[in-house]
Amino acid sequence: MTNRLVIVGAGGFGREVHSWVKSSPRWCESSEIGSVVFVDDNVPTVPVRAPIISTVRDYWPAEGDLVICAIGAPSARRDVSRLLSQRNAPPGTFVHDRAMLGDNVQLGLGAIVCPDVLITCDVRIGVNVHVNIGSTIAHDVIIGDFVTLSPGCNLTGNVRIEDGAFLGTAVTVIPGKTVGQDALIGAGSLVLKNIPPRVTAFGNPCVIVGKRPA
């Protein structure tokens, strides 16, 4: 029996994930993927290259479904993932064939690891984490649940990214620093000191520019 991959979210990142799945024959074979469909509340205005079978609220998993949540915003991804968990949707973990993972890399269920990602060794990544194109994660990094790393992020050794944090494109975090829970780090920022929870921070060096809702 083959599995049906259900991508939740047919927006930009969901469509990217669909492309990465199609270019990952080894992963598709090991996961026994026979078809791919989307679940989304809206019909995108751009072409979607797989059927949208349901809204999120109306989706109930069928036998053989493997579900990954490709909603970029951590808070929305958390809410949808909770709903899916209540319905016993089997979570999938996607690692593109062109990603490189070293020794003792622990990936939580629902993680998405895109092409050209490098994860070195002794790294722990939580559930439903997105690691986008070309990001690097060095030794002894800990990433919490529902974190988003946008393209080209660089996490150096012993960095900690707490639950729900969002790192914009090309963010660099120097060794040993922490980005707090639900913090948002703007694109191109260089994080030189610990960032507290639930703030927006930006710049080189990165500074706090606002607070986020609890």
Automatic annotation (TrEMBL):
Q: Which PANTHER family has this protein been placed in?
A: ACETYLTRANSFERASE, UDP-N-ACETYLBACILLOSAMINE N-ACETYLTRANSFERASE
Q: What is this protein called?
A: Acetyltransferase
Q: Which Pfam families match?
A: PglD_N
The record, for SUPFAM superfamilies, names: Trimeric LpxA-like enzymes (SSF51161)
- UniProt organism field: Cryobacterium sinapicolor
Query: According to the lineage, what is the superkingdom?
Result: Bacteria
InterPro entries per the record? AcTrfase_PglD-like, PglD_N, Trans_hexapeptide_repeat, Trimer_LpxA-like_sf
User: Residue ranges of the PglD N-terminal domain?
Assistant: 4-81
